[in-house]
């Protein structure tokens, strides 16, 4: 029986290899100042979502170390079994205040948050409308809910309204899923217009703010504000900010919270310290977008809307080759390939951080201009 399993895996791997779609884990040590060490070489990483460089900030590390020494390495069990650790309670209070909400709930990861939110709020007989470029976990949570799922073209307000007009009257509840900053394209959702449509049709809106928190703010808030602790805040975990009633409901009904071990206290303490830095140092928060716009201006690309800039290549093999060529020049910029993005749209996803210098940004832009002269 194991022979047939291994044969199945080998056949699938051969197909992935042929299409340049196989993924491999490459030993890499992240360091401060956007550094990364790989195969004995020091690279400048433009592949990390540590947008403010806070994962290596001494204040964040100290907060994690203190919590680690006081509360231990792990949470022990589900938060509903072992109780709510003090760092988690403090973090939830601070997140809710930051988002202008009554309460917050921290999950083990952003993926787990989105697996739990939609199924706790809607189900069979309800409707979910989701942007076609929504993150994989938004789709996973939507499908797990059992609700009817309709996908609308990316940021297409007329299509979204058409779906609401066609289906809202025949369902009990409707939920719109989108992102503040789309992770692979770096563009923004038209949130004011989406929230207006939601109000007109009595629909609820969940905004995934994984890539916007702290770097693309302020802005209109949705009733359901979800995000992660692993990007701007340099730690690990996910969260939802909402009304007290909604958070209390999810505390009982979100399966990915109820049946999962709680976030380690050190991760919560690190995120709490990072959020305090975000709020007290606005000049740091503004830097990633400024660097992204410096990069797009230097290459003649459309002005960046966020710290994420896609450099479209096309085919997966070509994207891998361009990534490898940049690595030889000292830059870590990973190729993004299907199924993460649509076939024919493989790209380099360039992520900018407050830890980058202007000289590093210019050097990357110049290297890309040299390697892809047809783009100029």
TrEMBL record:
It comes from Methylorubrum suomiense. Residues 43-368 form the Aminotransferase class I/classII large domain. This is 8-amino-7-oxononanoate synthase. InterPro entries: Aminotransferase_I/II_large, AON_synthase_class-II, PyrdxlP-dep_Trfase, PyrdxlP-dep_Trfase_major, PyrdxlP-dep_Trfase_small. Keywords: Pyridoxal phosphate, Transferase. Its cofactor is pyridoxal 5'-phosphate. The keyword DNA-binding does not apply. The keyword Transferase applies. The gene is bioF_1.
